[in-house]
Amino acid sequence: MNQRVRITSPQTRLALRRRTDAMRPGGRRAGRPPIASTAIDIDAAERALRRQRRLAVRTVLSLGGALAALLVAADLAAGRLGWAVLFFAPYPVLLALAAVHVRRAERIESDS
């Protein structure tokens, strides 16, 4: 008869031990300082969230408009130039929109 044997990695055993230690009363994860209780300004957090949602909507609308403009440009271009517009032009547009979005999102974070 073959007997079943459970084989685990030493890292798995350590991870399981850390998880059970963290769940004990007064236990915390190794290497992380305890979280200090601080007062959170709920109104400021909600304002920042609303501003970031508006920014996300504007970014998505801008992306849609830019891609629509690229499709029109590709349709107006003749032959292979239209394919080149479709293949290569979206990447710089995406990069520029992403850079602007990140800069504005960081500004919102720093203002709040």
Structural class computed from helices and strand pairing: mainly alpha
Instruction: Label the overall shape.
Output: flat
Q: What's the rounded overall pLDDT mean?
A: 80
As a percent range, the share of strand residues is: under 5%
Helix content: over 70%
Radius of gyration: 26 Å
Regions with pLDDT < 50 over 5+ consecutive residues?
none
Order of helices and strands: HHHH
Number of helices: 4
Keyword list:
112 residues, mainly alpha, 4 helices, 71% helix
Task: Describe the fold and architecture.
The protein is mainly α and 112 residues long. It has a domain at 39-111. It is built from 4 helices and no strands. Helix 2 (42-76) packs antiparallel against helix 3 and helix 2 (42-76) runs antiparallel to helix 4. The longest helix is centred in the middle third of the chain and has 35 residues, at 42-76. The termini are far apart.
